[in-house]
Structures are given as structure tokens and as C-alpha cells.
């Protein structure tokens, strides 16, 4: 988590609601918090996938990283079959993280998809998600991420299926300064750099943008 620049509020929520809860089930029970389902949303390149990897690292839980391309296939019926296989695999683990990246493409609004496969498969996927933690023993952390939350199936968003919706914003000035520092730390540069000025002049850039700029500088 210390590699993540800025995002103080996000990190605090992730630390308490996801990491601590997963690591200390007894304490979590005492405070009546449970491992739940989380949605990370915000512009692309703001660190959502990065955060999920950090959560896996800190909890030590195995991570299933599922993107639309893992599940979708042009072959008829393949999506449903892949989902079935996925949940069978997940059920073998006592605890793990199930991460759906680009969730808007995995569970799209039914009104916006013409695909009969999706119309049938999405409700099934939701049922599988609901069945994830039937007893108190299993600790499956479900995290979904999206750049386009408004494209997600209405039933998912309405239904309180997510215990927490976490907005991951663009980095503020302080975070951009840290991103430049982190990004340029391994690169030998003769002139002393003014990170503060760089941060001031880079408003609107994402963490991914700044990472790319720094990489280019090192080439
Ligand atoms: N706040 C941040 N702190 C550190 N690195 C970041 C941050 N935001 C983005 N990055 C960098 O940008 C890369 C791409 O971010 P990513 O997590 O894929 O964004 P998203 O999933 O939100 O589209 C990450 O691998 C990371 O190196
Ligand atoms: Mg991502």
C-alpha cells in the first residue's frame, strides 16, 4: 500500500474494510463487519488494478484476476461455461480475492446489450456472486473495478450487492509530486528536479500518465 501515491481516503477504507477484516476474522466478528463485495470506480489509470494487487499482497490471499476477455468468447455458451468453471475453482479456496476488472463489460446493462447470451448469463453470474459466502467460514473478497459505472447492469447497482462503492479519483497535487518522485527515483538525472513544479504543471494527468512520462524520461 505504501507504493500507492495519494488516495488517502481510499487507502483508509481499503485498509479497514478489506484488509483488516480479512486478516482478523475474529476482530471483524466482534465489530460485526464482514468481508463483502466492493466496487472501485473512477477514471482509467488512477490505480484501481494496482490497489487490488496491493490488497492481495497484504492479505496474502490468492488472487483471481478476471477480465472480460477471460470470460467472453465468441463461441456460443462459452461465457456461461467459463463462469461455471470460475466459481468451481473459487469454491476450492477457503479464502481468496475474486477480482472482476472492467466489470461493466462483464455485467453490462441488459438494456444496452443485444446479446441473448449476456441477457441469460448476467442473472446467473449475480446468483453465483450471491452464493459466494454462505457460511461464516469462507472468506472470498469480491472486488469489481470499472471506468464506466453507469454501464453496469441496473440490478447489480440497485441491489446493494456491493457493500461499498469506492471512488478512485485523479491524483491531487501532492499525489502527483509523489508519483514523479517514485517514477524518477531509479533514473539518473544530473539536474536537480523540482518535483513540486512538475506536480503543479501536471493537473489532470493520471497516475498511469505520470508513470509513462517518467519511463520515457529514463529511455
Ligand atoms: N495512485 C497511484 N500510485 C502509484 N501508482 C499509480 C497510481 N495510479 C496509477 N499508478 C500507476 O499506473 C499504472 C496503471 O494503473 P492501473 O491500476 O492499471 O489503473 P486503473 O486500473 O485504474 O485503470 C499502475 O500500474 C501504477 O504503476
Ligand atoms: Mg485497471
UniProtKB/TrEMBL annotation:
Annotated AAA+ ATPase domain ranges read 34-172
Which GO BP annotation is one of this protein's? Answer: cell division
Q: Which GO molecular function annotations are given, in alphabetical order?
A: ATP binding; ATP hydrolysis activity
Write down the Gene3D superfamilies for this protein, in alphabetical order: 1.10.8.60, P-loop containing nucleotide triphosphate hydrolases
Keyword terms, alphabetized: ATP-binding, Cell cycle, Cell division, Nucleotide-binding
One Pfam family from the record: AAA
- Which InterPro entries does its entry note? AAA+_ATPase, AAA_ATPase_domain, AAA_lid_3, ATPase_AAA_core, ATPase_AAA_CS, P-loop_NTPase
Q: What is this protein called?
A: Cell division control protein 48
The record lists the organism as: mine drainage metagenome
